[in-house]
Amino acid sequence: MTSIAVIVGSTREGSFNRALGELAAGRLESRGANVTRVDLAAFDLPLYSAALEANAFPPDALKLKALFAAQDGLLFVSPEYNGSLSPLLKNAIDWASRPTGDESLVALTAYRGKPAAIMSASISPFGGLRGLMHLRQILSTIQMLVIPEQVVVPNAHAAFAEDGSLKEALPASLVEMTAGRLIAVAKALTA
Ligand SMILES: Cc1cc2nc3c(=O)[nH]c(=O)nc-3n(C[C@H](O)[C@H](O)[C@H](O)COP(=O)(O)O)c2cc1C
In whole angstroms, what is the distance from residue 81 CA to residue 122 CA? Predict the structure, then answer.
């Protein structure tokens, strides 16, 4: 079974990105994926610093890295903060990119060669598009294969129906397309 982790870059109560992540997780599951929902609030991740790392690698950073490493693919759902991804998500990505044990500096065992998909929900009419451009570049830098499909949900405060679905057909169809491609690529790469 294809394993996908859904990582949401907001821990805010009522987060629109969590709502989008939950919707996407459901669509991945309906296609047969084994989905792990990653709530970053459940991980005690200090702000990355090389000094901290040299002193003691935080146990929860190791835990997060192992969780990522065990997946066939990763789906990142991030708010846009000042035109970029959230610092919460960037910090998590950075910790899990670090070598541990005997790994080389560029081992990137949590990420290398795996498919990634990206999504964003924003209260703005642009739907977090600028943040996704940064996120795509970062994930490519850590040698993930970022699929071309992506999802932006503009006017997120008015975008979701009571049942968690998206009211507009276009972003809803993008979620379907993105979920489908992520699983297809993950399957092809693990075949
Ligand atoms: C520091 C900060 C910067 C923000 N910058 C942007 C931005 O550049 N573009 C945007 O669309 N929304 C921006 N927002 C608004 C967020 O998109 C909005 O708060 C969104 O609801 C956050 O996602 P969440 O609902 O998943 O927590 C910003 C919010 C904060 C706190």
Answer: 10
Query: Which residue in 147, 178, 136, 130 sits closest to 20, CA to CA?
Result: 178
Q: From CA 124, how far away is CA 126, in angstroms rounded?
A: 5
Handedness of CA 47, 52, 58, 61 (dihedral sign): positive
Count helices and strands (H / E) in the chain: 6, 7
Identify the CATH number of the domain in which residue 60 sits: 3.40.50.360
* Cβ 128 under 6 angstroms from ligand 1: yes
On whether the CB atoms of residues 36 and 71 are closer than 8 A, the answer is yes
Q: pLDDT (tens digit, 9 = 90+) per residue, 148-168?
A: 999 999 999 999 999 999 999
Ligand 1 pocket, residue 81 CB under 6 Å: yes
Q: How confident is the model at residue 51 (pLDDT cuts 50, 70, 90)?
A: very high
Q: 57 CA to middle of ligand 1, Å?
A: 30
The pair of three-digit structure tokens given for residue 125, joined into one six-digit string: 């009419």
Q: Domain limits at 146?
A: 3-190
Please tell me the total count of domains within the chain. Answer: 1
In whole angstroms, what is the distance from residue 39 CA to residue 157 CA? 21
Measured in Å, residue 131 CA sits from the centre of ligand 1 at 10
pLDDT, residue 106, reads: 92
